[in-house]
Design goal:
The chain has two domains: about 55-195, no CATH class; about 200-320, no CATH class. Helices cover about 50% and strands about 10% of the residues. The chain contains twelve helices and five strands. It has a five-stranded antiparallel sheet. A hairpin with a 2-residue loop joins strand 3 (about 235-240) and strand 4.
């Protein structure tokens, strides 16, 4: 058997000494033969209170964190409105992508969110935006209004009227127990208000309409596409597009007011595209053609478009 090293003996000895010391500090309640019965008194560390200056600094820094997206939106709006990007970029979108790495829609979301926050600030009579920026020490904890801390919390409200925005936010804060509500809570409250004020669904089966994506992630990339109404519900429609069928709220649709004959022509095009899509034989170039046809801004195909669609049908062995 290998003989234990001297270092191991020293370590064991050190542990024994520590246990003895612990027994002494535990008011002689440590039993070496039954360590599990030891009672050790632990003195709680005293928590240092913040000074009045530190409390003000903390509040000021917290407000800066909360207002980061708001300040970004305000700055982007000024950069856009004054065209301060013009010396290096031809468009605002290109500038935001190169300078900040923002995708095309993101800067506009921040600008819209800043507008909503501006409106929410008006609800609090105790202080104004300038009071917070110029002298944060004047804002007391019982005066601080609960405001959004991220763009995602504001996004569902951007299409509402100012009074509705305020109503939604106050309700969402209440549902969140007096704390900053999540974007999901805000979205649920917005949905309730929209259903309460929803106009009568006047769409008809077979009607051609145009898509507005708004806040529906399923419709991302389909803004401006046309669709055929296949079912009419109380506050929504089921529509058929070039890439499938969707059920969307009527505020995501716009009536194109086509003539009945034009609607029938578009229905025929839609049926041909649907048969191709369901064939399972489409390759990527053919899908790209169908997507282009799904973005038509007129109720007919040109001669070339008709020939191209017929060619794809022939290759996929799908009859017109």
């Amino acid at each position: 058997m290998t003989k234990p090293s001297s270092n191991r003996k020293k370590a064991t000895s050190a542990v024994s000494n520590n246990l003895k010391a612990t027994a002494s500090s535990a008011e002689d309640t440590f039993d070496p033969e039954n360590p599990a019965t030891a009672t050790i008194t632990v003195t709680a560390a005293e928590v240092e209170e913040l000074s009045e200056t530190e409390q003000r600094d903390r509040l000021h820094l917290e407000r800066r964190v909360e207002r980061a997206f708001f300040e970004a939106g305000k700055a982007l709006a000024e950069l856009r409105d004054r065209r301060l990007y013009r010396s290096t970029h031809s468009t605002f979108e290109e500038y935001c992508k190169d300078r900040f790495g923002f995708e095309r829609r993101h800067p506009y979301r921040l600008i819209e969110a800043a507008g909503v926050v501006d409106n929410l600030i008006k609800m609090c009579p105790n202080w104004t935006q300038n009071e917070i920026e110029d002298d944060p020490a004047t804002v007391h904890s019982d005066q601080v209004q609960i405001l959004p801390t991220s763009e995602g919390q504001v996004r569902p409200m951007t299409k509402l009227e100012p009074q509705e925005q305020q109503e939604v936010w106050l309700t969402a804060v209440e549902l969140a127990g007096g704390k900053v509500p999540t974007g999901r809570i805000v979205k649920d409250v917005v949905q309730r208000i929209m259903e309460r004020t929803q106009v009568l669904n006047t769409y008809q089966i077979g009607e051609v309409c145009q898509i507005f994506t708004k806040d529906n992630p399923e419709l991302r990339g389909k803004g401006g596409c046309w669709a055929i109404v296949s079912a009419v519900n109380e506050f929504s429609c089921t529509i058929t597009m070039w890439d499938g069928e969707y059920t969307v709220r009527i505020d995501h649709l716009k009536q194109l007011n086509y003539l009945e004959s034009e609607c029938q022509q578009m229905q025929q095009i839609s049926d041909r595209i649907s048969r191709l899509r369901d064939s399972g034989k489409l390759e990527a170039p053919a899908e790209a053609v169908l997507k282009c046809l799904g973005e038509l801004k007129r109720p007919y195909l040109t001669e070339f478009e008709g020939e191209l669609l017929s060619f794809i049908e022939q290759k996929c062995q799908v009859e017109d």
